Amino acid sequence: METKLWNGERMEDLSAAAVALRQGQLVAFPTETVYGLGGNALDVRAAEKIYGAKGRPSDNPLIVHIYKTEQLAELAAEIPDAARALMAAFWPGPLTLIFPKKDVVPDCVTGGLGTVAVRMPDHPVALKLLQASDLPIAGPSANTSGKPSPTKAEHVWHDLHGKIAGIVDGGACRVGLESTVLDLTGTAPVILRPGAVTKEAIEEWLGPVEEAPPDISSKDAPRAPGMKYTHYAPEAPLYLCQGTGPQIASGLMKEISQCTGQAGLMFSAETLAAFPQAFLSSDAVVVENLGSRTDLEKVCARVFDALRYFDQTGVSIIYTEYFSTASIGAALMNRLHKAAGGQLRKFGCV
Ligand code: TXA
Ligand code: MG
Fold first, then answer.
1. pTM for the full model?
2. Is the dihedral of CA 26, 30, 31, 35 positive or negative?
3. What is residue 217's predicted lDDT score, i.e. its pLDDT?
4. Which listed site, 127, 147, 260, 348, has its alpha carbon 20 to 30 Å from 315?
5. Which atom of ligand 1 is nearest to the CA of 117?
6. How far is the CA of 314 from the centre of ligand 1 (A)?
């Protein structure tokens, strides 16, 4: 299949993309978090195509995207007051809410669950496309299952060209990590996946909320089925490094000198400053500077692009930083833990 590249700034391109969606085809589109792989959420065949194109296990449900709150009544059997308050506060924005589903939502969209995940993205191109199609659009992240989520149209092209009808290019995604997923269907609200709408921000509206444990053993039934699968993994093994900048720098320089092949270093500007400049510009390493660790939002926006860059360079090992878990750092470290498969390197007395 020829995959078209549409320009998100041009209304005629968005109209063509909307026609493709209405015909049951798949269109990748930008959101403020990551690119989504869109298909008509009410069409079983479109949903099945999404699982096929991504190579995604069929028990991992999809998020449905809407552009106006009126569309929610079509999808959700019940909209609790807590959800209404959060929608007013955070939509459009990076917060996905789980509702009991109506029968019109196909079981394959929800991975067989009786609930449906819905969000309204905060991106002008996404909202225009959703409006032009006038459909609820199922949209997982537009990557091959298991790979880092795409934050640029070229990432989607790399993973999915030839498999989908088109990609709407809207430039780089502002947030860079997927939305917060909040389950309101139980007795207490539970964050199933941390994101840019932080626990603290949600608690201002709801009081205490729980967090689903990050590591779920195969014995437990995860509440967000996606949590049990490998995620965000670059080709090379990734290690999270704990320690001060100088401890990490001297430990890694020793380790890398014994390695054949190049090592990827994905660190904050502060940690990189502890390495000698000559080492950073040597052939032993490929360096991705994520910016200052005091600006975690920028770090989040860069991290998936950096992981994908290492795949292109063919490094044989990647080291990254153990960032603060305060505020949006919780979402960042959730993704890095998964990308690293929990592999840690401790330097110094930590
Ligand atoms: O920011 C985002 O959320 C992006 C953009 C494209 O909107 N989408 C995204 O979708 O990250 P995806 O499919 O990659 O992740 C959806 C997550 C999965 O962990 C899935 O298991 C969970 O949401 N999920 C979806 N429906 C659910 C449901 N009914 N109950 C519990 N978890 C659900
Ligand atoms: Mg995903």
1. 0.96
2. positive
3. 45
4. 348
5. 26
6. 30
Answer whether 36 contacts ligand 1 (Cβ < 6 A).
Answer: yes
| CA–CA separation, 340 and 290 (whole Å) | 17
Contact 190, 170 (CB under 8 A): no
Tell me the CB-side half-sphere exposure of residue 119, using CA atoms within 13 A.
27
How do residues 33-82 score in pLDDT, each as one tens digit? 999 999 999 999 999 999 999 999 888 999 999 999 999 999 999 999 99
Q: What is the pLDDT of residues 199-221, one digit of tens each?
A: 999 999 999 999 998 654 444 55
Rg of the chain over CA atoms, in angstroms? 20
Query: Which atom of ligand 1 approaches the CA of 116 most closely?
Result: 29
Q: Which two tokens stand for residue 184?
A: 């309101």
Q: Which of 96, 191, 220 most suits a substitution to test ligand 1, by most atoms within 8 Å of the C-beta? A: 96
Q: How many residues does the chain have?
A: 350
Q: Would you say the CB of residue 176 lies under 6 angstroms from ligand 1?
A: no
Write the CA distances from 149 to 145, 172, 339, integer angstroms.
9, 12, 11
Ligand lying closest to the C-alpha of residue 224:
1
User: Which ligand lies nearest the alpha carbon of 226?
Assistant: 1
Ligand nearest to the CA of 232: 2
In this prediction, residue 224 has a pLDDT band, given cuts at 50, 70 and 90, of low
Which pairs from 42-47 meet CB under 8 Å and 24+ separation? 42/104, 42/105, 42/106, 42/135, 42/136, 43/106, 44/106, 44/108, 46/138, 47/106, 47/108, 47/109, 47/138
